[in-house]
Design a protein that fits this description.
The protein is 58% helix and 0% strand. By secondary structure, it is an all-alpha fold. Helix 1 runs antiparallel to helix 4 and helix 2 crosses helix 3. The longest helix has 22 residues.
């Protein structure tokens, strides 16, 4: 039985504006996170995640919270550009370089 705060899996996409948005979050999202970790390296990635957790542990974290945290480690903005490119690329293909 579901309580008021639980959602059945097939109901989850309804909270998004489009089905594609739901696909990015639930299917493409983990792949993007993996790519970010590979680009940054494990040590930097752990630092980012630790700081992100520290800054957001008492609130609902947003994408902008993540970008703000990432920007502290992405001095030239290259990682953030890549992330944006991944999110804008339809499907699961590697985005083309700009």
């Amino acid at each position: 039985m579901n309580t008021e705060n639980e959602k059945v899996l097939f109901e989850i996409p309804q909270q998004f504006t489009t089905w594609e948005e739901a696909v990015v979050v639930y299917y493409k999202g983990p792949l993007i996170v993996h790519e970010l970790r590979k680009m940054l390296g494990d040590e930097q990635w752990r630092k980012i995640i630790k700081l992100f957790y520290t800054l957001c542990k008492d609130k609902f974290a947003t994408y902008n919270d993540f970008l703000t945290t990432l920007a502290r480690f992405d001095k030239n903005g290259e990682i953030t550009k890549r992330l944006d490119n991944y999110l804008k690329t339809k499907g699961f293909n590697e985005p083309k370089p700009e």
